[in-house]
Amino acid sequence: MAVADDRPPNSDLLTAVQPMDARPRRPCRPAHGARPLLFLLLHNRRHVREQLLRVVHDPVLDRVLDAADALDLAGAIVQSQGAGAVDDGGAANRERLEGAESLALAPIGRRDHARLPGGGGREGCERKKQDEFAHGGDIVGADMSHPKLARPDYDIHELISRRWSPRAFDPARTVPRAELLRLFEAARWAPSSFNEQPWRFLVTMRDETAEPWRRLLSTLSTRNQSWALAAPVLVLAAVRATFEKSGEANQFGWYDAGQAVAYLSLQATAQGLGLSQMEGFDRQRARTEMVIPDEFEPAVVIAIGYAGDPASLAHDPHREAERTPRRRKPISDFVYEGKWPA
User: Fold this and answer.
1) In angstroms, rounded to a whole number, what is the distance separating the alpha carbons of residues 36 and 108?
2) By C-alpha distance, which of 105, 142, 82, 173 is closest to 269?
3) Phi/psi at 218 (nearest 5 deg)?
4) Is residue 188 included in any domain, yes or no?
5) C-alpha distances out from residue 167 to 32, 288, 305, Å
6) How many CB atoms lie within 10 A of CB 157?
7) Of the residues 113, 144, 177, the one at which a domain ends
């Protein structure tokens, strides 16, 4: 007697589509046909597309969504015309359906490898990885040998593992305005007491707002200026010390602003951007130079850009820090169960 199987169709394949934090991420994959992927989409479209958004690497994602859109188009034609009508209908519908089919079933891998800097295919991919490691920069897709990749005791999200604070920035690369807006959109959704959102960000860009950028740079300590001058974007984060409506002191404002910057930092990591926060700056000078209102306190200056070559740094300790593995206290040092330790 057969045992009833209540699993969803194609459940074995669906199980293989896991979140990022459940499987290692590889920067390049061999070229492959899209049929197994599209088979998943057909069987459980909404669930699988959500999983794909979490799993598939950015260079491949647009191709996957193109394929899914093509399937939507084909499905809409079949639903509106009927299967027989598609076969026997007009040339226009047949042409639309054939075009959707060819788009959906086109190989995903080959076109995406061709986009990688330094050439297509595996060779271009390996060259890209070598460049990343040589410059000590972005850890997107990096292997476990990268010195800044966290070695956690327990599984954590890969964005947390990859986040670090570079001092070496590539002075030749600017950050597009659209990429900056994504960072502050992430900060916008951070939690805060009474939804006060007491943070403010004053953005300066070397190429677009050069004079404010130079003024903010001048507020940094000499050591920080030596490397931050290569960053195309400098941001002053400030905190409102009082609640807007009541005017009473907001003792949680700094805590809330810290959460907003943490959201921004993880978003920057997801976008392949480097971000480094600096407390070494003259707050009173920053208030004067950047005309900060009295109700706000300058908190931190943030350098944003694309990670560069550590050899460009002027100070030996800075160069060494770019290649030194990150270390953290064990959980037992700061997490207590039931009572505070004696």
Assistant:
1) 12
2) 142
3) -70, -20
4) yes
5) 39, 26, 10
6) 13
7) 113
Q: Is residue 212 part of a domain?
A: yes
Looking at the domain assignment, is residue 28 inside a domain? yes
Tokens (6 digits) for 276: 């480094």
Q: Please compute Rg for the chain using Cα positions.
A: 25
Ordered strands of the 199-205 beta sheet:
199-205, 233-240, 296-305, 274-278
Compute the distance between CA of residue 109 and CA of residue 29 in angstroms, rounded to an integer: 7
Tally of domains within the chain: 2
Instruction: Say which amino acid occupies 232.
Output: P
Please report, as a single letter, which amino acid is at residue 308.
G
- 273-294 confidence digits (pLDDT tens): 999 999 999 999 999 999 999 9
Q: Which residue, 145, 106, 150, 165, is CA-closest to 318? A: 165
Quickly list DSSP for 283-330: HHHHHHHTT--TTEEEEEEEEEE-B--GGG-SSHHHHHHHHSPP----
The answer to whether the Cα torsion of 44, 47, 53, 56 is positive or negative is negative
Give CA–CA dist 94/85, Å, rounded.
10
pLDDT in tens, 137-189: 555 444 567 788 999 999 999 999 999 999 999 999 999 999 999 999 999 99
User: Which residue type, as a one-letter code, is found at position 237?
Assistant: A
CA 135 to chain centre: 19
251 vs 105, 255, 284, CA distance in Å? 57, 8, 21
pTM (predicted TM-score): 0.60
33: containing domain: 11-113
Final residue before a domain boundary, out of 53, 87, 113: 113
In a domain, 125, yes or no: no
Say which amino acid occupies 339: K
Exposed / middle / buried, residue 124 (Cβ in 10 Å: 0-12, 13-18, 19+):
middle
Residues 200 and 263 in one domain: yes
- Whose structure tokens read 């040998």? 145
Q: What is the DSSP letter of 20?
A: G
> CA-CA distances (angstroms) from residue 265 to 42, 182, 305, 325?
36, 11, 12, 19
User: 87 and 231 in one domain?
Assistant: no
Angle (nearest 5°) at CA 220 between 214 and 225: 75
